[in-house]
Amino acid sequence: MEKAKENGLYMHDPGYKSVKTKFWAYFFWLFGGLFGAHHVYLGRDDQAFVYISTFGGYIGCGFLRDIYRIPAYVADANNDPRFIEDFKRKVRANRKPPFSAVRFAAQAAVAYLWAELFNSAIPQEEVYGINFRYLLILVPAVIAL
């Protein structure tokens, strides 16, 4: 059993955390990146959900951005001390994230996409005598997601 632990083969230890590599992150990015496979591999489930629901970070824009972001994602997943210190320095320098026009435009575009998907799912006419148009009042809630 000790030999397996030394070789990294023993995975039943509660404190065990596998080391993520750039190779596999780029592999999953290349063959499943539009669906967020690399984010699932790195344990970034929230980001993976956004990729799945927007086909690669709003039709591939986030997918292309990840070409140069994957090394930072891997360092974050592995709790690299240099990455953590750099992150702490940035948080101390900027108490809140700086405004980014690109981030704002992307958030607005994703909110619009989800609202349109929700709106298109509501039948225009009555179905078996039931009018579903009152569900339009929930569009702001969908945008807030």
Task: Furnish the topology, listing elements before pairings.
Layout: H1 2-6, H2 22-32, H3 37-41, H4 45-59, H5 61-77, H6 81-93, H7 101-121, H8 139-144
Helix pairs in contact: 2-5
Pfam families: TM2
Organism: Atta cephalotes
Domain TM2: 20-67
Give structural attributes:
145 residues; 2 domains; 8 helices; elongated; TM2; transmembrane; membrane
Structure overview:
- The protein is elongated.
- The termini are far apart.
- It folds into two domains: 82 residues, no CATH class; 47 residues.
- It is mostly helical and 145 residues long.
- It is found in: Membrane.
- Pfam families: TM2.
- It is a multi-pass membrane protein.
Number of strands: 0
Return the domain count.
2
Content of β-strand = under 5%
Which shape, going by the Cα principal axes? elongated
Radius of gyration, rounded?
A: 21 Å
Mean pLDDT score: 80
Give a nutshell description of this structure.
The chain is mainly α and 145 residues long. Helix content is 64%, strand content 0%. α2 packs antiparallel against α5.
